[in-house]
Structure formats: structure tokens, C-alpha cells
Amino acid sequence: MISALTPEDVQYATVSNKNIEIRKASMQDIPALLNLINGYAAKGVMLPRTEFEMSENMRDFMVAYDGNVLAGCGAMHFYSPTMGEVRSLAVAETHKKHGIGRLMVDALVYEAKMYGLDAVFAFTYVDGFFAKAGFHTVERGELPLKAWKDCLRCPKFQACDEIAVVKVLRPQRWEQKQPNYPPVLGVEDGNVVLLPILKN
Ligand SMILES: CC(C)(COP(=O)(O)OP(=O)(O)OC[C@H]1O[C@@H](n2cnc3c(N)ncnc32)[C@H](O)[C@@H]1OP(=O)(O)O)[C@@H](O)C(=O)NCCC(=O)NCCS
Questions:
Q1: 118 CA distance to ligand 1 middle (Å)
Q2: Ligand 1 atom with the shortest distance to the CA of 97
Q3: 116, 109 in Cβ contact below 8 A?
Q4: Between vectors from CA 78 to CA 12 and to CA 138, what angle results, nearest 5°?
């Protein structure tokens, strides 16, 4: 069970005979985090981060270390009293497919539960990975508008091919809070289509 919520509270997990240290990130992790995240951003699979953004959002981050090598990271960003987003999830190429990504997601979801969130979501290209961690695919329009904040500065904003996935943590509360919107119909290219429901 992962329960690390401060940089001092370190948890260990053994994956593929490696003892992986998991904890909340601290400012000293920033250079290694930027290196990992921006390496993937250069390949177009993640959003780039700056040192300023990392500092501002450092409390969101969880890190996984193999000795002194940053093996993985991920962030839990709170959007509302009920929802949070898994962001900046990355595992070093040298450490992929050993269960570290799953460890990160489980740690972030645990944290979301500790803070009383009803659900967590992610925008991703690896929906298969998230499905294994208990997320399911939803229409992007089902997420709160605020969750699209990062999209505004994404180079793929006009042609987004990311998939929205959600993991419900408190099913009863989540269902109760889902507004029962009637379907919204519109016309696109001469066809009647169901428009995305945008919630504030
Ligand atoms: C996606 C990523 C975080 C997965 O990390 P990982 O440590 O290799 O994944 P794990 O070893 O923990 O895999 C857990 C499970 O998901 C599966 N899985 C891993 N990557 C997958 C993928 N791309 N597609 C489908 N399933 C995948 C594994 O087979 C494993 O399944 P199992 O439980 O049946 O054995 C890693 O590949 C990565 O950093 N990718 C580049 C950055 C990225 O795309 N981040 C996501 C942004 S939302």
C-alpha cells in the first residue's frame, strides 16, 4: 500500500528485483524531472514544463527513484472539490514495463482519495495503460471546462487526438453530482450531431 504524502515519507516497492523509492517530490528533483518530462515532450507525447511551472506545481508531484536515478514521476492536480487530474506521468525509457508507471498512478490515486476527491481523470495517448489501472474512456465534453486549461497552450489544441479517461473513486457521490443534461443536438456538415456537454 502506497501512503507517501510528504518528501520525508518514503515508501519502497520491489519491481523486477529493483527496490524503487517512492515519495512526494521536492525542489531538488526539478532538474531530473525537467529532463524526463521534456525528453518526452520533444517527442510530442507530453506537454513541456518550465522550471517556473515545476516550482509552482511541485506539491502535485510524486517521484520514483531507482538509487539516485529518477525512474518515474507523475502529478495529481486538483481542479475542483471533486475532481483531480493525473498529469506529467512519465517513466524513464530505461525503466519502462517494470510496473513503475502503475506504482505512480496508484500513489496519485491514493493521494486523491486521501483528499476526498470523487474522481480523477487524465488526457492520454496510452488509454490501454490507464484501463489496467481502473480508468475508463469518456467523451472529452463530459469533463469540466476548467480541465481544458492546459489544452489552450497545447500545439495540438485544434486537432486533439488525446483520449479522456476517468477513474471514479466514490461512485455514489459521483453519480449524484452528474447533472442530467438533455442531449444537445447541432448540425455539422449538414448532419445532425450530438454536441459535447460543457460543464462549468
Ligand atoms: C505510459 C507509461 C507511463 C507506462 O509506464 P510503465 O512503467 O512502462 O508501465 P507499467 O509497467 O507500470 O505497466 C502497467 C500495465 O500497463 C500495461 N502498459 C504499459 N504501457 C502500456 C501502453 N502503452 N499501452 C497499453 N498498456 C500498457 C503494462 O503491460 C502493464 O500491464 P499488466 O499489469 O497486465 O502487466 C510509460 O510508457 C511512459 O512514460 N510513456 C511515455 C510518456 C507518456 O505517454 N505518459 C502518459 C501521459 S498521460
A1: 24
A2: 11
A3: no
A4: 95
Q: How far apart are CA 19 and CA 184, in angstroms?
A: 52
pLDDT at 161: 77
Q: Which residue do the cell numbers 481502473 mark?
A: 134
Question: What gap in Å lies between CA 193 and CA 53, rounded to an integer?
Answer: 38
DSSP 169: S
The domains located in the chain, with CATH, are 11-194 (3.40.630.30)
Query: In the block, which residue shows the cell 454536441?
Result: 195
Pocket test for ligand 1, best of 126, 137, 166 (most atoms within 8 A of CB): 126
The pLDDT tens digits of the residues spanning 52-93 come to: 999 999 999 999 999 999 999 999 999 889 999 999 999 999
Contact 23, 7 (CB under 8 A): yes
CA distances for 89 relative to 27, 74, 200, angstroms: 18, 4, 26
**What is the grid cell recorded at 96?**
519502462
Provide the whole-model pTM: 0.86
Report yes or no: 86 and 61 within 8 Å, Cβ to Cβ: no
Is the minimum distance from the CB of 46 to ligand 1 under 6 angstroms? Answer: yes
Distance (Å, whole) CA 67 – CA 2: 18
